[in-house]
Amino acid sequence: xxxxxxxxxxxxxxxxxxxxxxxxxxxxxxxxxxxxxxxxxxxxxxxxxxxxxxxxxxxxxxxxxxxxxxxxxxxxxxxxxxxxxxxxxxxxxxxxxxxxxxxxxxxxxxxxxxxxxxxxxxxxxxxxxxxxxxxxxxxxxxxxxxxxxxxxxxxxxxxxxxxxxxxxxxxxxxxxxxxxxxxxxxxxxxxxxxxxxxxxxxxxxxxxxxxxxxxxxxxxxxxxxxxxxxxxxxxxxxxxxxxxxxxxxxxxxxxxxxxxxxxxxxxxxxxxxxxxxxxxxxxxxxxxxxxx
Length: 292
Fold this sequence. Notes:
CATH class of the largest domain: Mainly Beta
Oligomer: single chain
Helix content: 10-25%
Number of helices: 2
CATH superfamily of the largest domain: monomeric porin ompg
């Protein structure tokens, strides 16, 4: 009987130790999980807020965190026959927002390889943009933008632009958003003179102030289809030069993170610096957009 009692006592001691260890491990896992959640509580994609990056911060109740949204767009055009053409277009953007401050970062890469009757032509352009919005009134933002560009076709070695001004939201409904602003800026171009001299024309570096009108419209046709339009017009001081960029975009959602993206772009350049080039380019691209 005494042996049985000792065995039962030993079993109880072992079982209690196992239970304590298991409880401690469960508690450690719970603490670890909470720690991981708290570690990332300072940033959120704002999934429950809908397309918050198209809205103003006053249009919703945001979490106490930095909101982020990222898009990756890619399109490929390929032609064969008398002219063989391969064209890649990549755009990566990141939007960060905390309260009334929004920072928009984007990088755009275009690469074209063309083989026409044995002559190979390669063009590449890169563009980086950093834009900051500060919502100072319910309908008005202060906006400042920095852009850098390099472009083989236009012989840009370095193209820098800086601008700042006021940006107004004149229409803000569930289906339509209309914004327009006026900005003052500076444009500086360093040319690839070694390349342009081969084409028979050396170009002097360009250094001008300009006034910019930037206008944007967004039409939320449904939860799946979004249409947007952007117009950027720069008028340069001291001459009649100007440049204009128009973008029409239609985005059709396929899954939660993937959509079909179609863009039509018009670029018109009537400045002194590009007299050797055609003044207008038009481009249609169809590709895939991945959103996070």
